[in-house]
Amino acid sequence: MVTKEQRRRQLAREKFERQQQRRLEQRRKARVRNSVIAAVVAVAVAGTGAAFAAGAFKSDKKKSGDNAAATPSASTSPSASAGAKAPDPCAKPAKGAPGTQQWHSAPALSIDKSATYTFTLRTTCGTIPLTLDAAKAPQTVNSFAFLAGQGFFDHTKCHRLTTDHIYVLQCGDPKGDGSGGPGYTIPDENLSAFGKASADGKVVYPAGTVAMANTGAPHSGGSQFFLVYKDSRLAPSYTPFGTIGADGMKVLDKIAKAGENDSSGPGDGAPNATVVIDKATVTKS
User: Fold this and answer.
1) Which of 4, 50, 61, 77 gives the lowest tally of CB atoms within 10 Å of its CB?
2) What CA–CA distance (Å, rounded) separates 75 from 72?
3) Considering its fold, how many domains does the chain have in total?
């Protein structure tokens, strides 16, 4: 016969065992939750890297105080402070959506290397005319002439503005997040355009330069490009293939003054201005 004392001890032991089981279960759930959180963080970090890999500018930023001096022709009007909100200076985009077509290989070279080509971006913030250098960057200019002819850039937004030591507006991604392209890559060209790199491995990309964005690896450019609105020190890894006209620099100055939203760190994010390329054309003159 079980005594009251034995019964009490049995109940106490069972209660203790249940408590231990709950604690073990709570620890197991905590471990699973932490693993999930870690995985999500890893994916988020990887996603951010992928979204902005086509710019690859973070590693090119210099320490505070190392700004390059602007050339006389540079637009030196200060942009909004990092992350500062300003009124949107741009109009509403034209109706339409970016295309989704992809190609397995770059188009065959068909441009005239001795000719002058103009890449005209009709944007919501104003028209930006670009003069392309077919002689020094024929593969790049050929690709842009092909893509513009296919309407590839139409209705795409310029997704990235940098305002801290590097001063560029990045465009050319149909996805609008820095991860898109035409399905093919083109070789690097004209990398010695700005002379020999200094001791820090960088050169000055002058204000008014148009250059290819890439993933950080050689020959990885696609359709994304950046417009330099103020002298920027970068590794000579980005194909310069044209220049921006004076009217285009005024448009870039307006966009830069509106600032960016710091989505990828101080001085680096989506522009506050709604910059959408309504229509892009390449014409031979």
Assistant:
1) 4
2) 8
3) 1
Residue recorded with tokens 């209705």: 155
pLDDT tens per residue across span 106-136: 999 999 999 999 999 999 999 999 999 999 9
Q: Cβ neighbours of residue 137 under 8 Å, at least 6 residues apart?
A: 189, 190, 239, 240, 241, 242
From 98, 61, 118, select the one nearest 224 (Cα to Cα).
98
Question: Please, are residues 220 and 185 in contact by the beta-carbon 8 Å criterion?
Answer: yes
Q: Is the pLDDT of residue 52 over 60?
A: no
**Is 41 within the bounds of a domain?**
no
At 67, the amino acid letter reads N
CATH number at residue 85: 2.40.100.10
Residue 39 lies in a domain: no
Residue 260's φ and ψ, nearest 5 degrees, are -135, 170
Q: Which domain holds residue 192?
A: 53-284
**Inter-residue contact 244 to 209 (CB < 8 Å):** yes
